[in-house]
Amino acid sequence: MKRLGRTERLRAGQTFRWEDDEVAVVGTLRVGALKIGASLSDGREQILGLVLPGDFVGRLSATGAAHRVTAAVDSTLCVFRRSRFADFVHCNPELEHALLDRAFAELARARDRMLLLGRKTAGERVASLLLELAERSGIPHGGRIALPLTRGEMADLLGLTIETVSRKITALQRAGTVALPDPRGAIVRDREALRIAAFA
Amino acid sequence: MKRLGRTERLRAGQTFRWEDDEVAVVGTLRVGALKIGASLSDGREQILGLVLPGDFVGRLSATGAAHRVTAAVDSTLCVFRRSRFADFVHCNPELEHALLDRAFAELARARDRMLLLGRKTAGERVASLLLELAERSGIPHGGRIALPLTRGEMADLLGLTIETVSRKITALQRAGTVALPDPRGAIVRDREALRIAAFA
DNA sequence: CGCAGCCTTGATATTTGTCAAACAGAGTGG
DNA sequence: CCACTCTGTTTGACAAATATCAAGGCTGCG
């Protein structure tokens, strides 16, 4: 596939500029991790989803609301101008179908997260997050998972507070389900136990 | 536009059959209200979204997870076989684009709901729901809004319990923000106050 | 060293859930 | 027409989960 985008780098904490100079863009994450966020006017914050390498990022529909996209860690992504991308899609109907699939996969993840936020306990939420990160990062059982989020960001993703995340994560450690070599890494010791802790 | 679907009726409480006889289907809601639900194995339930008249319903992507769709009240919808629908879409590229837009609108609503579930208080949640129903049903200010949900279903949508929904709804009534002529109807007395109660 | 940011832990407060009871309306059958 | 029951709602007292407040620790860095 011909490359049509340009590479862009984001330092941790930087927010992606949708309207770069003139026109909205879309892109693909190459390395790092982005967080899609929303917030209330009094400062309460919710992370709606994570973008990990390989994932698509962008405002595909002109009508869709633009959410804030911020780099959780230093990241590089490949961005296209929206207009040029639209032409390209127009010439490749297959691609539009693939995008539709991608959109629905994202929707499915959004729905899982709604179940998590609406009905899971604090312990189940942090176990679910660790499990998701373990599965999406494709690290083999027993390997160290890099956590692209601080405790505070995990809290904003899970609808909890920093302190509760910290307590529940150490509870999983005490139970022997995970090990925490350092605050930004985790090792799943017993994936089955983690799955049980995550669900119900 | 030529009609290609058949009409199907669902009584309140009935679950939509995805695999009718042979093949998955998609459709459009004509009258009534559907709830898209997910649940945990121990019975905890979460309503992920509402389908109101005019909305699209279906599993567009073969890869997307199929969620349970149940009629909240007696409903009628127009359904197509997936295969025939796919052909039709293939012949009308415009349509696929419209569907993509629709999917992103739904995603945006899903994200609003995540913010609600993760970060809003109980009172803000029920106010948000009443506001959404008022706005989506297009009833003028002061008119009676038909609530297509029981208190229990509202609770499952908002990630609360029946009792909490009941208490917060009567609190809004006591504040003069809404009136409750009967449990299945509501009148917004002060939309601005409701908006304030819903947000932050 | 000493600061700054992030993490952990503890004590306490607040919100929301749980359990229980009573109430209201709709349908049903005597 | 009147019990009677069934389902959904409201309300109260209490319990449990999580948030808040506060302190202290660790690590990296100027």
TrEMBL record, chains A, B:
Pfam families linked to this entry: cNMP_binding, HTH_Crp_2
Name under which the protein is recorded: Helix-turn-helix domain-containing protein
Coiled coil: none
Keyword Repressor: no
GO MF annotations in UniProt: DNA binding; DNA-binding transcription factor activity
Single GO cellular component term: cytosol
Domain named HTH crp-type: residues: 120-192
Keyword Glycoprotein: no
Keyword terms: DNA-binding, Transcription, Transcription regulation
